[in-house]
Design brief:
The chain is α+β, with helices and mostly antiparallel strands and 970 residues long. It contains 30 helices and 15 strands. A hairpin with a 3-residue loop joins strand 4 and strand 5.
Length: 970
């Protein structure tokens, strides 16, 4: 029983132990997880805030200064993340105090904490403003204030705890006006502490004064500030804290600037701060070194304090004479003799116009608008006397603050423009332009735009092109569209005139799209809508000056047509219009086209030439431009026509068939031309030649294009055309190289003597020749078809010399003829017998032709019997085959009108040349014995004629013909 109980109890204990083990493991696991979370959080915070507790709220940049006791505080420029405002972060690393004992280290850190706490409580324009309270970590202390440029100690050359120093501080020098104004600001701060806050600063020295971003001097370093104790009387009572040698120097006030009563009498008062202020004034004029240097030794301080009772004036020789006497009062051993802050502010040393102006700027927020406006009117004169850095740091920020009130902008802009002119381009971009941009958008009061226009050259020279496009151009457009042309500048120029005069000065900055779509349309609208003559003339002058930024077609389409819409005709307007046309005519890239000048410009300008408002010089100017345009139209159009004429001549060379006949000979030229023919030929119209009547070729007139430039079309020849052209040119050259045709006298043949007796009296040669030709024609038509010529059994005729006659159509072979036996003979005798070859003719009998209508054209001698033409044809033929060995009689060669010839060409035997009569549509060919080949056009009065069968008729015909030729040939 006991055993079972014991076992159950033992089992229960085991279970309890197991539960305890589980709880312990859970606890360890939970603790481990919590530690892990804390470690992760710590790592995350450390990565975000690398030693500076303000890194989560500010973007911290580089170090700019150091300040405080022993310059322990590092000052960094920063930007607040939430508001993007500039700030300064004061940072103190505790590890720099590792050289001190732990107790001394704690004393120093405690004094630094106290100083930040006191500074946070104090609110005054001359005391540094805290914007973020003190934060402390194991490694550092940090707080944030308004932006700080540097500390006075750094400016005077003490750069302890300043990493690498600063190039700006090394080149920084305080101007006299800065010192005066800075001392005034410190006096204001001391007056606030002494009279309002009932406090003593106890450490007035360069390390306790900082220079804000805009150059103002402000009190800081409140580590040793002492509050006045309770007192029943009105005079404040302050407990004196002795300077102890057993405490670290950084935990006590600067011994070099401390008043002697702290050690001599163990008392302190506001006069003690005034003594420190006197030493500060001395150090400013002594390269930052105080009157005495104690080096932290209290004994040395006592010795120096005793020497102050008999201080020589020579010690103050470096100070301005106006200030030396007052400094000596401040350094008196008797505190009651020292002047207070209010008294020091009234000394003559601070009665400087520049110093007073800076002091007035500090109190602008307390002034009325009327007072401010009066002050700003005279401010530019003061700015001219101020150093550039002082104007930029002290004056410019105050002016921009006043720009919140639009009514004050016209009063502050002159001073802003003056400071901008003194600044470099980089300084302007950094300090002026960002604050000036909101002013570009102000439209009321209208004087704002006027002042911007007056200073536009300054703005354009220093403002980047992108900002000009974004902010300046809208201001220009607004000025052009303003409804207040009566607003004028000080020199009497209206705002719109001023705007129009400055636009061309930055024409190269205007984009073409802006010029075309925004600028020019507004100028045109203003020119047409204004009633002020000066504004209209300035609009035209502005357009003329902007034309070099335009292209040709914009000028032709937009500018020149606009000029015809201008309603007024004052001389200034007319001459401005002429100037625009002159620029468009003279500018190479614009160049008014010939068609525009002829059709639009000249018809517009010529009536303006005779306007009654123009004087002699203006009229001459108009006529000069008009004549120049007319000359240009003439030159360009003549050049075009010459080009077209050249193309036409090139085409004519390709048509040699019109100049050279198909037989290789030149066509006949007319003996003479009338005056009308010469006129039409000179002006480019073709005329017929060679006896034909003149014909006007309408297609030869050049076709004038309406475009500006005339570009001749180039003719591209095919290979076959080029070969044909070359062949024709060679043929033409060969024909030109032949000697000219001349009459040749040959020895008369003895076989057939000629006995021609010239008839007495005049003879009708035309009738005689026509009668002879008609007889021959009649005989040719009667010749037997298919018979052999001059040989039995159709044997063809041949000669040993003479011209060769290829086989003609309908003939089986050729016939060779010898030269005539006599130049005056009408008949030709073969030199040799006919060859054995046959000459065949068509066997079909040709139909008879009724030629009775030619009877009236025939004339015969009175002794002869008139024979009808039809009767002639009944007894004659081409050849008379009944007489063997007959002499063939060829007729005179005939060619068609216009020089028509056989396509196969002619063989020639030269005979005396003579003028031949015309019969019907046929003309006798030149005096050449010719033969032709088949396949061509057979002449109607053939090359050969048969002899007449009748001896009487033959004799009479021979006699008549010989007489006729003799008369013709002389």
């Amino acid at each position: 029983m006991d055993s079972s109980l014991f076992q159950e109890e033992r089992k229960q204990q085991k279970n309890n132990f197991a539960e305890l083990q589980l709880k312990k493991e859970d606890f360890i696991t939970d603790r481990f997880n919590k530690m892990d979370v804390l470690n992760r959080l710590k790592n995350a915070v450390t990565s975000v805030i690398p030693g500076n507790p303000l890194a989560r709220d500010f973007d911290i940049h580089g170090q700019v200064a150091s300040t405080g006791p022993g310059l322990l505080w590092k000052i960094f420029s920063a930007v607040k993340k939430s508001t993007k405002e500039e700030a300064a972060v004061f940072y103190f690393e505790k590890k720099v105090l590792d050289k001190y004992h732990k107790r001394d280290k704690e004393v120093i850190i405690e004094s630094l904490r106290k100083g930040v706490q006191q500074l946070t409580k104090l609110r005054h324009p001359r005391i540094l403003s805290v914007i973020h309270p003190l934060e402390e970590t194991r490694e550092a202390l940090a707080f944030a204030t308004e932006p700080v440029f540097s500390s006075l100690a750094n400016v005077l050359g003490s750069c302890d705890n300043l990493s690498g120093g600063s190039k700006i501080l090394s080149e920084f020098q305080l101007y006299e006006v800065e010192i005066k104004h800075g001392l005034l600001q410190i006096l204001e701060g001391l007056g606030f502490l002494h009279n309002d806050a009932k406090m003593l600063h106890r450490n007035i020295c360069p390390s306790s004064i900082v220079l804000a971003k805009f150059g103002t001097w402000k009190l800081a370093g409140c580590e040793f500030v002492q509050q006045a104790g309770d007192s029943q009387d009105q005079k404040a009572f302050f407990t004196c804290h002795e300077w102890r040698s057993d405490m670290p120097r950084d935990a006590q006030p600067n011994l070099d600037y401390m008043a002697p009563e702290y050690e001599l009498n163990h008392t302190c008062s506001p006069a003690s701060d005034m003594f420190s202020f006197g030493i500060l004034m001395y150090a400013l004029y002594n390269n930052g070194r105080p009157l005495y240097e104690c080096e932290g030794e209290l004994r040395t301080f006592r010795q120096n304090a005793e020497e102050l009772g008999s201080m020589r004036n020579s010690l103050l020789s470096k100070m301005p004479s106006q200030l030396a006497g007052h400094v000596k009062l401040l350094l008196n051993l008797e505190p009651t003799i020292r002047p207070d802050a209010a008294q020091m502010m009234k000394i003559p040393f601070f009665e400087d116009m520049a110093c007073i102006a800076l002091q007035y700027i500090d109190s602008l927020y307390q002034r009325e608008n009327i007072e401010k406006s009066n002050f700003f009117k005279g401010l530019p004169k003061i700015i001219e006397c101020l150093p550039k850095r002082v104007s930029q740091q002290r004056v410019l920020p105050a002016l921009f603050k006043e720009g919140v009130n639009a009514n004050m902008v016209p009063f502050i802009l002159p001073s802003i423009f003056l400071i901008s002119e003194q600044s470099t381009t980089e300084e302007y971009k950094e300090m002026v332009l960002p604050e000036l941009i909101p002013f570009f958008k102000i439209r009321e009061p209208i004087q704002v735009m006027l002042m911007f226009l007056q200073n536009m050259s300054l703005l354009l020279s220093k403002t980047p092109a992108q900002q000009i496009q974004t902010y300046v151009f809208p201001l220009i457009f607004a000025a052009l569209e303003a409804d207040s042309p009566q607003i004028q500048s000080t020199d009497g120029v209206s705002m719109q005139e001023l705007c129009l005069s400055i636009i061309p000065t930055f024409a190269d900055l205007i984009e073409y799209t802006t010029l075309k779509k925004s600028m020019i349309p507004r100028i045109k609208k203003l020119c047409l809508g204004t009633s002020v003559l000066n504004v209209r003339v300035n609009c035209l002058l502005c357009i003329g000056k902007l034309m070099d930024q335009m292209d040709k077609w914009f000028v032709l389409d937009e500018i020149l047509p606009f000029l015809r819409e201008i309603p007024s005709r004052e001389p200034a307007v007319l001459m401005s219009i002429l100037g625009i046309h002159k620029v468009a005519l003279s500018e190479p890239k614009l160049g008014i086209t010939k068609d525009v000048m002829a059709n639009k410009v000249l018809p517009f300008l010529i009536p303006l030439c005779i306007d009654n408002n123009l004087n002699l010089n203006q009229f001459n100017a108009y006529m000069g431009v008009v004549k120049e345009m007319l000359s240009k139209v003439e030159t360009e159009h003549r050049t075009k026509l010459e080009q077209l004429d050249q193309i036409q001549q090139e085409h004519k060379t390709l048509e040699i068939s019109k100049i050279v006949g198909e037989n290789g000979s030149f066509g006949k030229q007319g003996e003479g031309k009338t005056f009308m023919d010469k006129f039409w030929s000179n002006i480019g119209f073709g005329g017929g030649g060679g006896g034909e009547s003149t014909k006007v070729n309408a297609s030869s007139t050049p076709e004038v294009n309406s475009g500006v430039n005339v570009t001749p079309k180039k003719t591209t020849l095919s290979l076959e055309e080029k070969q044909k052209l070359a062949k024709q040119q060679e043929q033409e050259k060969a024909l030109k190289s032949q000697p000219p045709l001349a009459p040749q006298s040959k020895t008369p043949s003895t076989s057939k003597p000629s006995s021609v007796t010239p008839s007495s009296g005049p003879r009708d040669l035309t009738s005689t020749l026509m009668e002879s030709n008609m007889r021959n024609l009649s005989m040719s038509s009667k010749s037997s078809s298919g018979s052999n010529i001059g040989s039995p059994a159709g044997t063809p005729m041949s000669t040993s010399g003479g011209a060769n006659w290829p086989g003609a159509t309908g003939m089986g072979g050729g016939v060779n003829w010898a030269s005539a036996s006599s130049p005056n003979s009408h008949y030709m005798t073969p030199q040799s017998s006919l060859s054995s070859s046959n000459t065949s003719f068509p066997s079909a009998e040709k139909p008879k032709v009724d030629l009775s209508s030619f009877d009236t054209l025939l004339t015969t001698p009175s002794s002869a019997k008139k024979v009808p033409v039809n009767q002639m044809g009944q007894t004659t033929g081409m050849w008379t085959a009944s007489q063997p060995g007959m002499t063939p009689r060829p007729s005179l060669g005939m060619t068609g009108a216009g020089g028509m010839s056989n396509s196969q060409g002619w063989g020639q035997n030269t005979m005396p040349s003579y003028q031949q009569p015309t019969f019907g549509a046929f003309t006798a060919s030149p005096s050449t014995n010719q033969s032709w080949g088949g396949g061509g056009i057979r002449p109607m009065s053939g090359v050969m004629q048969s002899m007449h069968a009748s001896q009487q008729n033959s004799a009479a015909s021979k006699s008549l013909t010989s007489d006729d030729l003799k008369d013709l040939l002389g």
